[in-house]
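Q: Structure for this?
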Amino acid sequence: MTPAVRVDHVSRRYHGVTAVDEASFALEEGRIHGLLGRNGAGKTTLMRLVTGLDRPTSGSVEVFGSDPFENEAVLRRTCFVKESQTYPDLSVTRVLASARLLQPAWDENLARLLVADFDLPLGRRVRKLSRGMRSALGIVIGLASRAPLTLFDEPYLGLDAPSRALFYDRLLADFAEHPRTVVLSTHLIDEVANLLERVVVVDHGRVVIDAESDEVRGTAYTVVGPAGPVAEFVSRREVVARQDVGVYSSATVRGRLDEPERRHADELRLDLSPVSLQELVAHATHRGPDDTPTPEGGTR
Amino acid sequence: MSRAVAVARVHAVDVSQAVWPWAILATSFLVNITLWVALRDVEGFQKTTGGLASLYITAVFVAAIAVSRQLPFMLGLGVTRVAFMGGSLLYATACAAVTGVVLTLLNLVEGATGGFGQDGKFFRVPWLTDVPTYQLFAVYAVPMLLAIALGVFLSGLYARFGSTGMLVSSLVGMVVVTAAVLLVTAARAWGGIGQWILDLTPMTLTGWLFVATVGLLGATYLVLRRASV
């Protein structure tokens, strides 16, 4: 299957600052992808390169098989909802009417439904909307566009938890009926962890994880128990984080466990628990980019 | 092409931007009419005005502001820079055409009513609109296209180079103008230029304004082609 997006050894430098450094990954068609990383990791720059808003300093970007920059056939099939999107100074109704004119797959019924869901005041000017309402407007546009490639760059600024949950619900529901390639950049990883089929984690402009989210989830676990047995159990393993509380110890270890190892942990009366995607990403982006080990199934 | 038409239609959704210059013009017109009536007994009062310029000056700013908002909005929704420029040009041409028609009509009304009963000249500009009726359209429409092109160019310059770029380019502009003045002086060519200005007719001036418009559009293309938004 041809990927919807292929990023090949892409670097982007601005006046000596390297925002993206030799990044390579591919996004398959018809899936929901997470582009994860800390602030300033290069997520937005990557999305701008994919949507042709910017060009790489070196390397190549392909969307639906061709360079997206000034490519009408590609760009008319993309929709990019930015964190702080600039809107024309119009009412919500007119902004939606404008978006409909530019998005060939626009679904007006869905737009109306979402406007009601998010309680958007149609007659109010965008300038007068609260931060959260403006984010909701971006979400309405991004979903109702039904663009074959839809990118959301931290689209939830100022949105409260129920509204964010609403966004994830509506995204999943509409995605089920109209599969398309979705890229969601976020640092609220735990909230979207169940949505994401594949994750690309960037740190300091580099891709540090590029794998199925299920694979990533199994790549580390936490061991909790008395300090002595914990130390014994993790002695020959790669510990990424460790915390001692009195006689108890908690260690986060990279790798997978097989059955004998689980039994061994049982014998030592240790608790094993999987590590959340959020923590894994935190560990992957906590260290320097050079000594980050590649999780199984991932590429560097 | 269909993409450019869509861009033009999005511009048209924002009717307020097209209405602003006319609202300013209407205000200016009302102020002038009031003055003409109030001062109708004053001897030697010149009932001519530069009020018409407010339409074009406002258009420069309206176009600049509209582009600064619409460019990032539309590019996020999958519009190419070239389609944006094509659609914007389409819309600007329509605006200029409407300007040409409306002002020609108002010019004729002003003439037929004896300057609105006050012998005033608001839509008729001495020398510039002293042309056959069929030429009025171009005389009114071309400066509007130039005004919009100037606004779009300034906005594009800002999008591409930021405020530092604006500062540098205005400095460069001043240096170029100063150099040109010195050059003309050194060549003792002021007489020739004066003669050229005296020889201008309203239509040749309009022609030169059109050339300037095309030049600005070309410059805008070069600036926006690589602008990141």
